[in-house]
Amino acid sequence: MADIEPVLKAVVPAAGLGTRFLPATKATPKEMLPIVDKPAIQYVVEEAVAAGLSDVLMITGRSKRSIEDHFDRAYELEEALRAKGDEGRLAAVRESSDLAIMHYVRQGEPRGLGHAVHCARQHVGHEPFAVLLGDDMIDARDNLLTRMIEVRQQHGGSVVALMEVEPDQVSAYGCVAIEDTGDADVVRITDLVEKPPVDEAPSNWIIIGRYVCDPAVFDVLEKTAPGRGGEIQLTDALRTLADTPASEGGGVYGVKFRGRRYDTGNKLEYLRTVVQFASERQDLGDEFMTWLRDFVAQHDKGTSASS
């Protein structure tokens, strides 16, 4: 196999309307909703940087200016904090602007994840790149993206992150047919189906929001017709690449992920994520958990009394 180029760039699609969180997202991007005291999108960028990807392209849309502002310097705020001698908050404010080299491009119309990824073509060029979806947060203690980049270096082609779910959940995700490779956590993907009916799903392994893509995906996306929902699906393009020779950038592999994933794309999972992160914070955890236990006990007592 020819030398495989290293993965150095990350693409973060963030152009969605966030309708599940209205009215909170009427004027605030869903990616900026806080997980305790840090917006969800910052955790995603931190994950990319931890995997060695300091060049980050954000695919945004209208009303997403606050994302750019968050990763920019805030000189007046910094000066006010410096004048107060508040070094802790000053460091926290500077942290986001010092994380990575940030770039932005707008997705003019919401035509699906595949279209959003294609918007990165000019910036990415002929290099492999990672795609991180903002709705999916991977625990910082689980090096999923680093492992995916290793698999790309070993096999070439594109790599997706997989999780096993109950059969009745597969129709909410992209689902894959797989073959063993000899590595316990790596499979070769032979087919991909976007949100299949339960009885037509090729397996219980779903694609979660992490991808490492060969640049060949751009040519495929350009020719990919709109699929489910009238949108251009990244899953459809990867399906084509799964049947494409390795010499042409083809081949798709999956990393079986059994770690900690937080889905912030719906209200209930978002609330669970906030509670979990708060409970594990050194500065908040003990006091928060004491309150939470008392709250649950009082709630249970009230429920029992009323039944």
From TrEMBL:
Keyword field contains Transferase: yes
Reactions this protein catalyses: alpha-D-glucose 1-phosphate + UTP + H(+) = UDP-alpha-D-glucose + diphosphate
GO aspect biological process, one term: UDP-alpha-D-glucose metabolic process
Single GO MF annotation: UTP:glucose-1-phosphate uridylyltransferase activity
Assigned EC number: 2.7.7.9
InterPro entries (UniProt xref): GalU_uridylyltTrfase_bac/arc, NTP_transferase_dom, Nucleotide-diphossugar_trans
Coiled-coil intervals, chain numbering: none
Domain Nucleotidyl transferase: 9-271
Residues annotated as transmembrane: none
Similarity-based family: Belongs to the UDPGP type 2 family.
Protein name: UTP--glucose-1-phosphate uridylyltransferase
Taxonomic path: Bacteria, Bacillati, Actinomycetota, Actinomycetes, Streptosporangiales
Gene name for this UniProt entry: galU
